[in-house]
């Protein structure tokens, strides 16, 4: 599967997964995201929001 074949929401999920994986290995003091949910479907918005919430509470 080529990255060009992914939808905007799928590309956003890949990018977020990469950032969160790097954060697990080499955490930064904070991250600033701007409209990361703009291209996500409703189900993925909720999943990403829950993941960010759980990562924030375990930090």
Automatic annotation (TrEMBL):
Stretches of the chain forming a coiled coil according to its record: none
Domain RecF/RecN/SMC N-terminal: 3-56
InterPro entries membership: P-loop_NTPase, RecF/RecN/SMC_N
SUPFAM superfamilies documented for this protein: P-loop containing nucleoside triphosphate hydrolases
Name listed for the protein in its UniProt record: Smc3 protein
Organism: Tylopilus sp
Taxonomic lineage: Eukaryota, Fungi, Dikarya, Basidiomycota, Agaricomycotina
């Amino acid at each position: 599967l080529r990255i060009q074949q992914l939808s905007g929401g799928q590309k956003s999920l890949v990018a977020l997964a990469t950032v969160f994986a790097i954060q697990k290995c080499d955490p930064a003091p904070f991250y600033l995201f701007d409209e990361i949910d703009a291209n996500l479907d409703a189900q993925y918005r909720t999943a990403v929001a829950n993941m960010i919430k759980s990562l924030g509470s375990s930090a």
